[in-house]
């Protein structure tokens, strides 16, 4: 059994009106007489009829009224739904075999590529909070970061700092419970699927 997944999203973010018609026509051509798919659901003739109706509505809507565009959108929604149903049928029959899926004229989902170690945080800023013993630490958003790790320690330190660790899904966090008048060192790292961490430059600041 294969591991490929058939694309089921035919929305406007992936296909323009014209591209959807072209895609639907290609799928009909590829699946007609294809021995891999002997009982398509829905039937290919139904999808073909929808494409004909959609193309007519699409042509009329180009220079037509608002009502014409509403009708076109209705046909588009119907075609999107039928192509999604065909995709689910192809997924079931193909059992994830990429070659069989490709023979239908449909596409497979792109597999996410590993990002690896994330970039070093930039523009790290330390600001005093509204209350004593609090600071707000932030950095620029990091591509690929699923969450952010923040660490701080009292200064001076001997050897390795005794870091206190906090995490957040945002690249900005409020840290409280600090000792007013003390000096601390702060750093940030973005965290993703890679277990390695690239820490920012350490920033030292007194806490009010």
Report on this model:
The chain is α+β, with helices and mostly antiparallel strands and 208 residues long. The chain has 2 domains: 17-103; 125-206, Sandwich (Immunoglobulin-like). It contains 4 helices and 7 strands; from the N terminus they run H-H-H-H-E-E-E-E-E-E-E. The strands form 2 sheets. A 4-stranded antiparallel sheet has the order 4-3-6-7, with no helix packed on it. Strand 1 and strand 2 form a beta hairpin. Helix 1 packs antiparallel against helix 2 and helix 2 packs antiparallel against helix 3 (66-94). The longest helix is centred in the middle third of the chain and has 29 residues, at 66-94. The mean pLDDT is 92.
Give the biggest beta sheet.
4 strands, antiparallel
Mean pLDDT: 92
The H/E string reads HHHHEEEEEEE
* Strand coverage percent: 15-25%
Helix coverage percent: 25-40%
Radius of gyration: 28 Å
* Global shape: elongated
Number of strands: 7
Into how many domains do the coordinates divide?
A: 2
How far apart are the first and last residues' alpha carbons, in Å?
62 Å
What is the count of DSSP helices, taking H or I runs of 4+ residues?
A: 4
How are the SSEs placed, and which strands pair?
Layout: H1 17-31, H2 44-62, H3 66-94, H4 98-103, E1 125-128, E2 135-138, E3 147-155, E4 164-168, E5 172-175, E6 183-191, E7 203-206
Antiparallel strand pairs: 1-2, 2-5, 3-4, 3-6, 6-7
Helix pairs in contact: 1-2, 2-3
Sum up the structure in keywords:
208 residues, alpha+beta, Immunoglobulin-like, 2 domains, three-stranded antiparallel sheet, 4 helices, elongated
């Amino acid at each position: 059994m294969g591991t490929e997944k058939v694309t089921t999203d035919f929305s406007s973010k992936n296909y323009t009106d014209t591209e959807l018609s072209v895609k639907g026509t290609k799928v009909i051509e590829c699946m007609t007489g294809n021995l891999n798919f002997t009982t398509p659901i829905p039937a290919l003739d139904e999808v073909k009829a929808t494409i004909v109706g959609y193309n007519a509505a699409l042509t009329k809507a180009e220079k037509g009224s608002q009502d014409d565009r509403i009708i076109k959108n209705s046909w588009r929604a119907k075609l999107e739904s039928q192509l999604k149903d065909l995709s689910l049928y192809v997924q079931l029959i193909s059992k994830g075999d990429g070659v069989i899926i490709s023979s239908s004229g449909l596409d497979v989902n792109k597999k996410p590529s590993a990002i690896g170690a994330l970039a070093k945080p930039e523009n790290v800023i330390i600001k005093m909070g509204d209350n004593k013993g609090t600071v707000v630490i932030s950095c620029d958003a990091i591509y690929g970061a699923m969450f952010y790790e923040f660490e701080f320690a009292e200064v001076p330190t001997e050897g390795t700092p005794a870091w206190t660790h906090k995490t957040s899904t945002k690249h900005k966090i409020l840290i409280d419970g600090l000792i007013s008048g003390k000096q601390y060192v702060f750093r940030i790292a973005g965290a993703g699927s890679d277990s390695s961490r690239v820490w920012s430059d350490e920033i030292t600041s007194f806490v009010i």
